[in-house]
Amino acid sequence: MNIIQIFKKYPDQKSCIDHLESVRWANGVTCPYCGSENNYPRTSDLRHHCNSCQKSFSVTIGTLFHDTRIPLQKWFLAISLILNAKKGISARQLARDLEVNKDTAWRMAMKIRESMKSDGELLTGVIEMDETYVGGKPRKAAKKDDDNNSGSPRGRGTKKTPVVGMVSRGGDVKAEKVEKSMLKSKDLNQLIRRSINPIGSVLVTDEYRGYSRVSKILKHYTVNHQFEYANGEIHTNTIESFWALLKRGIIGQFHKVSSKYLDKYIDEFCFRYNLRKENQELAYNSVIQRML
Ligand SMILES: [Zn+2]
């Protein structure tokens, strides 16, 4: 769904509520307080009244839209704008597009990102794994490449926040912020165990020693970046392209991303990447469902 389609399909609060109710209560309205299905049809204030517990409620109760004073159409537009922004969209930009203030836009975007968390499905197939370093305040010299800060060490010695990612070629990506102390083989192996189905999967990494005990879990190939970028199918180009996208987004749109919120931005970029082959409508509906 692009923003024109949203304007046409959901012109007002009522049409938005109709849509949310059809998704949340496809099999009939259920009271969120007592579970009763015995309630009056919607009243003029777009709420329901439960005949069992005598409470009134609207479709947004207990969801990520809960208690919002922002018209639902703006939420729908925000979802569309975030989904369609390949490199991410800043709170400032979102605020301009939605005609809300910047803090409101930021809070809306954070709620939407919350719906984009990984569902925990395991990766399979040929999987590339790598770590990168993001965050901190970019300097002027850092515009081109986040890793090329002069005066700040590159790669595994840097002060930035480490992020570990895995991507199944042709499939999904998973990435998360980790503590610097978690780049040891014990912790990386743990991460692999809860992210990858080892049966029938192979892992490709560089020669970082944190990956030295991966072959205990699944078949493991390494590429030596000192001598080559790829050895036939043995390469980590897919995860590196994802890092490039993530870093461009974070540098370009979010400027200073505090480590506290980094996970949410990563979730957003993973979610968009994982739905890259789906049509716009499916991606949009998936967010609405997750918000509810
Ligand atoms: Zn009730």
Search tags:
five-stranded mixed β-sheet; alpha/beta; single chain; Nucleotidyltransferase, domain 5; 292 residues; elongated
Walk me through the structure.
Residues 138-152 have low confidence and may be disordered. Among the domains are: 9-62, no CATH class; 126-260, 2-Layer Sandwich (Nucleotidyltransferase, domain 5), CATH 3.30.420. Helices cover 37% and strands 14% of the residues. With 292 residues, it is an alpha/beta fold. It has a 5-stranded mixed β-sheet, with helices on one face. It has a two-stranded antiparallel sheet with strand order 1-2. It binds zinc ion. Residues 31, 33-34, 36, 50, 52-53, 55 line the site of zinc ion.
Task: Describe, in short, the structure shown.
By secondary structure, the chain is of the alpha/beta class. It has helices at 3-9, 13-24, 72-84, 91-98, 102-114, 185-193, 237-253, 259-274, 280-291, and strands spanning 48-49, 56-57, 126-134, 161-168, 173-177, 202-206, 219-223, 230-231, 234-235.
User: What is the name of the CATH topology of the domain at 126-260?
Assistant: Nucleotidyltransferase, domain 5
Distance between the termini: 18 Å
- Helix content percent band: 25-40%
**In sequence order, what are the helices and strands, one letter per element?**
HHEEHHHEEEHEEEEHHH
Bound compounds: zinc ion
Class by SSE composition: alpha/beta
- Please give the CATH architecture of the domain at 126-260: 2-Layer Sandwich
- What's the CATH class of the domain at 126-260, please? Alpha Beta
Strand content: 5-15%
Low-confidence stretches: 138-152
Strand order of the largest sheet: 5-4-3-6-7
Radius of gyration: 22 Å
